[in-house]
Backbone:
């Protein structure tokens, strides 16, 4: 992101955030919570958020005036519950009695459902005497906008009303500068001995061998009375809802070794966690905490990663983005008729126009990707009813590509932000310093990014394919545009002396000769000639790009290379996956298996949950990858990466129009001798596929095939 909108959070005590990989995240629809390993919210990056507004900014539990000793904590594998197990430190003497350390088991169990946080604090006395247990919660509600939390400063704020208490409840209220009143309520199942607007003190008498359960709820409106029944019923519904989302589409299972299956399960659970069921269908939000909202580019790429297993995501993404397609020119929103949304936000700062992201279109690639995904979805599903419904949107998107995207009228898609409040770089590498010349100079606009031309090529080809399938007379025109784009890219971006493609062209048409991973995305679309694709592949598999944990966004030795940067030398799992899929298009499946092994190794060090990105330092024997301190975790397209890479390694191509599943020269990653794909639905047909390593070859055996579906093996 640009510096003005980059993540600059600090901890509540004024120190730096100790890495978002340390935060425990829960999410349901537009509500999410991030806390530390104890379950506490202490300001900084953590809190309970609803529709881009932080409700609880502080919620800290103490036992006897101190934080308990943590035994273990984490999020359940299905991403529904956060659970923390602690025990007491020595309790102060009370009434002549005191309790030594380690006699109380204190469990915090938390989940989110229907815009509410539910928590149960279970206290069990394992000591030999009764215990007087002082339990306290410090809390606050600051109603900060998500951009404030990220570090964007505000000169003016709305008004926070003094909290009010009502026996077991505390109510908070804030009237924003947008004249919207935002409320929050915190409620306890038991009346505290003392309750103020910032603290609840309890004094429990806990007999030996007995337990006490305290139930807590927090949400954006008046709280119901928390109790065991509400907690249990809502927990059941939360788990069932997550189960339904996780079970959409086909499933993947690896060998008996649990670690690879754990990675598959965690990745599928993360995609399910981030997916919100909107009226238009399921939509994968980009990531927690900074991007828990629909993003155009992220949603499209995540849906594409999952397309072969679960086409419902692509349908939901296409339908939602079509409903938000721009109809007018706005410099502030960076919109023009036909353009597809980049980002939408629901907070106060967006509503007031303090940031442009309420409904923002400053992504140069999203419109092309939208059209390309529609073509891929149609081939994967044969769902021409949806394509016919979207046809006016697809035509409008292509008109944007020619009328507004081609700023310089040279046949290439370029960008130049409409207002200073927008993003200066508008590709997926949208940080301020991500596009530059070989000597480090920043280019003047309009800028034509390499990978965006690939997306445009894929869009034109998709339109040609769809026109042929629908009987539209524009097929030849779309096909000609695709080939014209291919010729322009090969002529203007290729650097013969480098054996690689330039990252961009500047406003004068001069090559930005930085060597970046963008070329991997170009191969993903199939634009390069085979000869050039193999040269790019060879270089991307060299130590310049490969850190040992995946592909760096920028080759070592480049002017702005920094392995700790956001886009100039870090490793993004989705970027590695796109490059791997690009290599697979040109038959380099063993390269895909190699990169898949590296990403798998990285996931193993991140508890099988891949973050948005991590640092691009060289892999050292016996040392883990180095985390990027404010990366989103989980992140949708990071979680989806394993599924795109497996599709690429296995050589699976699904054509519902022809009723065939093609498998070309499959390769399993090292250490994985078999993989099962179960419940692969193609049109009215269904098939299970079993991949098995036999000697040095991987073979596939179809099972339970029905509906006239054909399975064809090549190579």
Residues:
């Amino acid at each position: 992101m640009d510096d003005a909108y980059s993540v600059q959070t600090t901890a509540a005590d004024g120190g730096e955030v100790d890495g978002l990989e340390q935060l425990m995240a829960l999410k349901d629809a537009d509500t999410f919570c991030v806390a530390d390993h104890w379950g506490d919210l202490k300001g900084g990056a953590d809190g309970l958020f609803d529709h881009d507004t932080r409700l609880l900014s502080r919620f800290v539990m103490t036992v006897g005036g101190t934080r308990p000793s943590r035994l273990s904590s984490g999020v359940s594998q299905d991403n529904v519950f956060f659970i923390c197990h602690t025990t007491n430190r020595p309790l102060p003497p009370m009434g002549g009695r005191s309790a030594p350390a380690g006699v109380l088991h204190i469990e915090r169990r938390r989940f989110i459902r229907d815009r509410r946080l539910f928590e149960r604090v279970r206290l069990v006395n394992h000591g030999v005497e009764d215990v007087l247990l002082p339990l306290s919660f410090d809390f606050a509600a600051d109603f900060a906008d998500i951009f404030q939390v990220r570090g964007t400063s505000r000169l003016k704020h709305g008004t926070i009303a003094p909290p009010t208490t009502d026996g077991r409840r505390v109510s908070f209220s804030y009237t924003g500068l947008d004249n919207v009143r935002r409320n929050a309520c915190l409620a306890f199942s038991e009346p505290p001995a003392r309750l103020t607007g910032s603290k609840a003190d309890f004094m429990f008498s806990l007999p030996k061998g007995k337990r006490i359960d305290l139930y807590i709820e927090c949400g954006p409106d008046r709280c119901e009375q928390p109790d065991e029944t509400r907690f249990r019923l809502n927990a059941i519904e939360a788990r069932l809802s997550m189960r339904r989302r996780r079970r959409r589409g086909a499933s993947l299972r690896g060998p008996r070794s649990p670690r690879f299956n754990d990675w598959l399960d965690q990745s599928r659970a993360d995609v399910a966690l981030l997916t919100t069921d909107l009226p238009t269908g399921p939509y994968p939000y980009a990531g927690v905490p900074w991007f828990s909202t629909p993003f155009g580019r992220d949603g499209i790429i995540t849906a594409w990663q999952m397309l072969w297993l679960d086409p419902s995501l692509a349908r939901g993404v296409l339908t939602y983005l079509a409903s938000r397609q721009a109809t007018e020119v706005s410099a502030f929103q960076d919109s023009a008729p036909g353009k597809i949304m980049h980002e939408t936000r629901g907070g106060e700062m967006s509503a007031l126009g303090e940031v442009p992201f309420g409904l923002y279109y400053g992504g140069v690639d999203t419109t092309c990707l939208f059209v390309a995904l529609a073509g891929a979805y149609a081939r994967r599903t044969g769902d021409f009813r949806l394509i016919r419904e979207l046809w006016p949107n697809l035509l409008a998107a292509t008109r944007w590509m020619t009328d507004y995207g081609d700023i310089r009228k040279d046949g290439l898609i370029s960008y130049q932000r409409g207002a200073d409040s927008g993003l200066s770089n508008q590709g997926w590498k949208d940080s301020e310093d991500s596009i530059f010349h070989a000597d480090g100079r920043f280019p003047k606009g309009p800028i034509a990014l390499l990978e965006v031309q690939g997306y445009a090529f894929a869009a034109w080809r998709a339109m040609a394919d769809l026109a042929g399938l629908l009987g539209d007379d524009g097929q030849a025109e779309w096909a000609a545009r695709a080939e014209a784009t291919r010729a322009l890219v090969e002529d203007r971006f290729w650097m013969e002396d480098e054996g690689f493609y330039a990252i961009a062209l500047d406003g004068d048409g001069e090559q930005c000769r930085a060597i970046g991973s963008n070329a991997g995305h170009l191969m993903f679309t199939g634009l390069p000639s085979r000869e050039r694709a193999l040269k790019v592949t060879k270089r991307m598999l060299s130590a310049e790009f490969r850190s040992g944990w995946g592909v760096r966004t920028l080759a070592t030795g480049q002017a702005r290379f920094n392995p700790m940067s956001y886009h100039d030398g870090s490793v993004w799992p989705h970027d590695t996956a796109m490059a791997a899929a690009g290599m697979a298009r040109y038959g380099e499946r063993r390269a895909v298996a190699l990169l898949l092994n590296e990403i798998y190794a990285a996931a193993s060090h991140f508890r099988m949950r891949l973050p948005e990105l991590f640092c691009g330092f060289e892999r050292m024997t016996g040392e883990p990858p180095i985390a990027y301190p404010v990366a989103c975790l989980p992140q949708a397209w990071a979680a989806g990466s394993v599924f795109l890479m497996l599709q690429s390694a296995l050589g699976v191509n699904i054509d519902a129009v022809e009723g065939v599943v093609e498998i070309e020269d499959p390769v399993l990653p090292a250490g994985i001798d078999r993989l099962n794909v179960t419940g692969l639905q193609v049109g009215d047909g269904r098939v299970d596929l079993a991949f098995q390593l036999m000697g040095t070859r991987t073979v596939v055996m179809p099972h339970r095939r029905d509906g006239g579906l054909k399975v064809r093996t090549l190579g």
